[in-house]
Design brief:
This protein is α/β, with parallel strands linked by helices and about 300 residues long. It has 15 helices and 8 strands. The N and C termini lie far apart (about 45 Å).
Length: about 300
């Protein structure tokens, strides 16, 4: 059942974390930066370890950069109309909420349109399409947000150009994506077998990896969530980009208001207890940043000239 989300529905713990974020998170950033100051130099990267406080801090920065939600046209790609990323916009005073997905939710959307519109303050529209061929006119969107989408986009350069095309000059985009493929658990599933298996998608040869991936008794024991997570690996739906390559794909079209890298805590632990395998990964041509950065969050502002 679709329901509105709002501050009134937050638990006490969640409200407390939101209140603490402006004080605690900058300190966490400084501490992480001191430990990993050599990661992705030149990109003005801010670093934190783990996800605690990160989402609230980033969304506060995005709201500040946007200035006001009033009368904005918002695009949320990679979602249907009953996800948190969609519902988070239902109560905001925006003009239009555009949802986009590669799955055609059109019939379901049409069937529930009347009830959905009662729950959603802005005008609500669903589009069936892809990021590299957005079914929207030029400069028709003011703000864009995606969550856990871009790590599955195989042609990010074309998608970044399309996102720039539909955004107004100076329009903003917030993208959070990960786990990235080259980090611990980057295939979304193999790390369910245990910490020592988190880089098996990189360390095993193809035949061994597929055999491990299709180990039905083990995944049945691990549970439905772990088993279902194999979908992305079985279908090979990944961008296979490294952190710097993501940023390079955005750079022709956008200025970076924020680049936040989240260090994967499991990656740090793996590096500590499996130094021989870590060296094997580095000797294969990967960088510390490729292995340690679990996800990226960027706030992008469309350039006025290219």
């Amino acid at each position: 059942m679709v329901s509105r989300s709002g501050a009134q529905g937050l638990s006490f713990k969640r409200r407390l974390m939101k209140a603490m974020t402006p004080l605690v998170f900058p300190l966490k950033l400084k501490a992480t930066q001191r430990l990993h100051s050599n990661i992705l130099p030149g990109w003005n990267l801010q670093l934190t370890t783990g996800y605690r406080f990160a989402e609230d801090w980033v969304r506060s920065r995005f709201a500040s950069a946007a200035g006001s939600w009033h009368d904005k046209r918002v695009l949320v790609p990679g979602t249907n109309f009953n996800t948190r990323e969609a519902r988070d916009w239902f109560d905001r005073p925006i003009k239009t909420l555009h949802l986009l997905d590669i799955v055609d939710w059109g019939p379901s959307f049409a069937a529930g349109a009347e009830n959905l519109q009662q729950l959603c303050k802005p005008s609500l529209q669903f589009h069936h399409g892809t990021l590299d061929q957005l079914p929207l006119p030029d400069e028709s969107i003011d703000l864009m947000e995606s969550r856990a989408v871009l790590e599955h986009v195989g042609n990010l350069a074309d998608s970044a150009a399309e996102m720039a095309r539909v955004l107004v000059p100076g329009g903003l985009a917030l993208h959070g994506f990960g786990p990235l493929y080259f980090t611990h658990g980057g295939d979304h599933c193999i790390a369910a077998k245990g910490l020592q298996h988190g880089y098996d998608h990189l360390l095993l040869d193809d035949e061994e990896y597929v055999r491990s991936l299709m180990d039905e008794p083990t995944f049945e024991r691990l549970g439905k969530e772990a088993s279902d997570a194999r979908y992305w690996a079985i279908q090979r739906i990944f961008s296979y980009l490294k952190p710097q390559e993501y940023l390079e794909a955005f750079a022709p079209w956008f200025d970076f208001e924020l680049v936040l890298g989240i260090i994967n805590e499991q990656a740090l632990l793996f590096r500590s207890i499996k130094p021989d395998l870590w060296q094997q990964l580095l000797q294969a041509g990967l960088k510390e940043s490729d292995l340690l950065i679990g996800s990226l969050t960027v706030i992008l502002r469309k350039k006025t000239t290219f």
